[in-house]
Design goal:
Blueprint: E1 2-11, E2 21-29, E3 32-37, E4 47-50, E5 54-58, E6 60-62, H1 81-93, H2 98-114, E7 117-124, H3 127-137, E8 140-147, H4 153-167, E9 175-181, H5 189-202, E10 205-210, H6 214-224, H7 228-234, E11 243-248, H8 254-262, E12 266-269, H9 271-276, H10 284-289, E13 293-296, H11 309-324, H12 332-347, E14 363-367, H13 379-385, E15 392-397, E16 400-404, E17 407-408, H14 413-428
Helix pairs in contact: 2-3, 2-14, 4-5
Length: about 425
């Protein structure tokens, strides 16, 4: 399929640094942005779209989450992380079936698409059922099986590897698979080292929770004599690391930050989940000054409690400006970059996250006729600081519309809502 977007306003491929807003024609051919020019003749055997009313951005990338936790939304407010996990989440997760996860993932994908997300990270269970939902929805994802190492480490490592080998680069490359050691407090250092080694051999990502709360870092230091990051460094795990996506990273020393920077790691920031669970506020000044690739994630909908990436970016921007007391510390362009290019780099989708010739056509069409964009003084500023997901008119992934004029094209949302309610009521009744 070919689409010619006439007079589209978009932020060009250099937006990470200078964010130049352009107006031009964009030709999408197959799954790729084939040409960008001031004037392109109407595309033969394709559709021409008058894009004058839209701000077109790369698709948003949710770099950390647990997609099916939509089913557990609203079950545990006002509790810290450990109680949230041990008293509310873990008991219900033991009851989950593959069909539960499939429906919960569909619900999350619908919410994400409606708010402009084209690519998702997932660390959860029944990942084959997650992959089924991703493939049907037409979006992209990097999927990992959340793995604790307490008992049968060899078997768990093998099952995680089997999933990676079976699922990586499926659905025409829209699905990537990764290793997902849950967290330092649920995995031994030896298990982490083994997963790092397997991931390096297979050329895939490792997703894991890291330094989320002050208590977990202190308990780890008491047991091992240093922080988890420092422990892994001392054991040589960062000497030749795989591509790492460390979620949260709220409580780090400067040494921890330097270790992750040297390792080429990415950090998926989850500000709303951290705030709601009382986990703390990251050292944004040090993170912004580092060379670490910063991405944005919502975490699961049971601790956020939505997967609206635009809202997540806005709160992150507020926290970065407020905690550093420097409103210029992070620019609008860099915030948008974290939520698009930064997430794409983190999850291994190196051909997306930007609007440029040769990149994949993962695009969001924001309707600037929405009142939140008025008076059009600076549409990128309006997107980040005044608009909301109501302004998402259409979403394209690999050159195919998955949302058009606010209508989901790949998910039967009425069926999904009905099934999700039935399954969530069963889980809530525990």
């Amino acid at each position: 399929m070919r689409y010619l977007l006439k007079c589209a306003s978009f932020v060009d491929s250099e937006y990470e640094s200078n964010g130049r807003l352009r107006t031009a024609d964009i030709l999408v051919e197959g799954d790729t942005i084939r040409r960008i020019a001031d004037h392109i003749e109407d595309a033969p055997a394709g559709e021409t779209i008058n894009a004058e009313r839209y701000l077109v951005t790369p698709g948003l990338v949710n770099a950390h989450g647990h997609l099916a936790m939509t089913l557990l939304r609203g079950l545990a407010d006002g509790v810290p992380l450990q109680s949230w996990l041990e008293d509310y989440m873990f008991p219900r997760e033991r009851l989950l079936t593959g069909d539960d996860v499939y429906v919960g993932t569909q619900l999350c994908l619908a919410e994400g698409i409606l708010s402009g997300t084209t690519t998702f990270a997932d660390m959860y269970f029944f990942e084959d059922d997650v992959a089924r939902a991703i493939e049907e929805a037409g979006v992209k994802a990097n999927l990992s099986t959340g793995t604790a190492s307490l008992g049968d480490e060899a078997g768990k490592l093998q099952r995680a590897e089997d999933f990676v080998v079976r699922c990586n680069n499926t659905a025409g490359g829209r699905i990537k698979a990764s290793f997902g050691p849950h967290a330092p407090y649920t995995t031994t250092p030896e298990f982490i080292g083994a997963m790092f080694a397997r991931a390096q051999q297979l050329g895939v990502v490792v997703q894991f929770h890291l330094h989320e709360t002050r208590g977990e870092v202190a308990a780890y230091a008491e047991k091992y004599g240093c922080s988890p990051i420092a422990c892994y460094a001392e054991r040589g795990y960062f000497d030749a690391p795989p591509r790492l996506v460390a979620a949260h990273c709220v409580h780090m020393t400067q040494r921890d930050i330097e270790i992750l920077e040297r390792a080429g790691a990415s950090i998926a920031l989850n500000v709303q989940s951290n705030l709601k669970l009382g986990s703390g506020v990251a050292d944004y000044r040090s993170l912004l000054a580092s060379g670490i690739n910063l991405a944005v994630g919502t975490d699961g909908a049971a601790s956020n409690d939505n997967v609206d990436m635009l809202e997540e970016v806005r709160v992150l921007g507020f926290m970065m400006k407020g905690s550093t007391m420097e409103p210029a510390e992070v620019s609008n362009n860099r915030l948008l970059s974290m939520a698009t290019l930064g997430g794409a780099r983190a999850l291994g989708f190196d051909d997306t996250g930007v609007i440029r010739e040769g990149a994949k056509a993962d695009l969001v069409f924001w309707d600037t006729d929405d009142v939140s964009f008025c008076p059009h003084n600076d549409v990128v500023s309006h997107l980040l600081w005044s608009a909301n997901s109501r302004a998402v008119d259409a979403v394209m992934v690999d050159g195919q519309f998955v949302l058009r004029h606010h209508e989901l094209l790949t998910i039967d949302i009425d069926r999904v809502r009905f099934e999700a309610v039935q399954r969530a009521h069963r889980l809530a009744a525990l």
